[in-house]
Design brief:
The chain starts with a helix and ends with a helix. By secondary structure, the chain is an alpha+beta fold. The chain is 41% helix and 25% strand. A hairpin with a 2-residue loop joins strand 1 and strand 2. It has a single domain, classed as Aspartate Aminotransferase, domain 1.
């Protein structure tokens, strides 16, 4: 996936805002961290990933998913942008969106998603 494709997916969530963190693209939603692109390895920080799921992802797809010592105590995983499938990114971001967006925004987004289906 390219950085432009990633940005389009992230900003498709209502209330998502682009910014910069450590000189790299970063995104917030409802004033809270949504995701960011790490400069060290062009990986996205994906939140709301349990420790067990993270281990499974890293074992199943080591070319895509990894971790650094800084993130070991957080429920997240790092995903190399070049190897990450757009559908997977959307699924990870949907989890985070449901957790940090306002309830009314989640409800409106869900209705919009059902209307598209």
């Amino acid at each position: 996936m390219t950085a432009d494709e990633m940005k389009a997916i992230v900003l498709s969530f209502p209330g998502a805002e682009a910014g910069v963190s450590y000189g790299r693209p970063s995104f917030k939603l409802n004033g809270k961290f949504f995701t960011r692109l790490r400069g060290e390895d062009d990986s996205l920080v994906l939140m709301e990933v349990s420790y067990d799921e993270r281990e499974m992802l890293m074992e199943a797809e080591p070319a895509t998913f990894h971790l650094t010592p800084h993130y070991k105590d957080y429920p997240c995983v790092l995903a190399r942008l070049a190897d990450l499938h757009p559908g997977s990114l959307r699924n990870f971001l949907e989890r985070r969106f449901r957790k940090i967006a306002k309830k009314a925004a989640v409800k409106a987004w869900e209705a919009e998603q059902q209307a598209k289906a």
